[in-house]
Design brief:
138 residues; 62% helix; two-stranded parallel ribbon; mainly alpha
Length: 138
């Protein structure tokens, strides 16, 4: 998920998605695995992503190898949450590659939309702070 989207940033969107999963009492293995995609590579950004429940973090410009590794880690964490046996490395890699291609296309579309509506970076930072405080129960 791109962190810098025009109407709702990725931190807030991830928080709301995962809150909805909790509200509907979905078991953890049914929660979506959300990977942050952002040009901000500061530790505070990574910590904010973790605080709202994102499972991984990929820096822009997105490199296919980095995205594939993040997707494989997400698949593995999903499998360990279900307690099932892990599928073959090749199958995981193929699934990750397909997801990486789709995610790269979505990231490009999101970047184009963000470029068309840049918004206030101060406002985005304020929203991130609010979302992080909510996630931490503050």
């Amino acid at each position: 998920m791109d962190l810098q989207m025009p109407n709702m940033d990725g931190l807030e969107a991830a928080y709301e998605i995962l809150k909805l999963c909790d509200t509907q009492r979905l078991p953890p293995d049914k929660h979506p695995r959300i990977i942050a995609v952002t040009a901000n590579v500061y530790d505070s950004d990574r910590e904010a992503c973790t605080a709202v429940g994102m499972c991984d973090f990929v820096a822009k410009p997105v490199k296919l190898a980095s995205l594939r590794e993040a997707l494989v880690r997400a698949l593995r964490s999903s499998q360990s949450a279900t307690g099932g046996s892990s599928s073959s490395y090749e199958a995981q890699n193929a699934a990750a590659a397909a997801a990486a291609a789709a995610a790269a296309a979505a990231a490009a579309a999101a970047a184009a939309a963000a470029a068309a509506s840049p918004g206030s970076s101060k406002r985005r930072q304020q929203r991130r702070n609010i979302v992080a405080r909510r996630a931490l129960g503050m």
